[in-house]
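Hi support team,

I submitted a single chain yesterday and got back a structure, but I'm not sure I'm reading the token output correctly. Could someone confirm the output below corresponds to the sequence I sent? I've pasted both exactly as they appear in my results page.

Thanks,
R.
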Amino acid sequence: MNTSSSGRFATAVNCIDGRLQQPVSDFVRNRFAVDFVDMVTDAGVVASIHQGVLDSVKISVESHNSVGIAVVAHENCAGNPIPEKAQRTQCLEAAQLLALYWPELEVVPLWVPADRSVEIIPRK
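Hi R., thanks for writing in. Yes, this is the structure output for that exact sequence:
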């Protein structure tokens, strides 16, 4: 069932950390000019984009006609407690992987520092 007639959607592949949900949703809603953001969450998600994450993104893309995907890493991640530089690299790699599955969509890697601002991670 395609439910996209009720509004425009984007997808966020995000950590489970509750502090991130609102700022990421707001950023993604503005970035992609959408009404809704489907949140695909897992602890430290950029460390391992597993089949369950891919399946959830596929549902968002196919059932909600998602117009873009954001992939999120953040400071002080309990599920992926590694240095910021390493997390940023993982986030870029996760974005590249998702872009292989959905080349028709823009995939944006995001970093969220402790102040909960949201920034795009530049590609090298």
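A quick pointer for reading it: The CA atoms of residues 11 and 38 lie 5 Å apart. Let us know if anything else looks off.

Best,
Support desk
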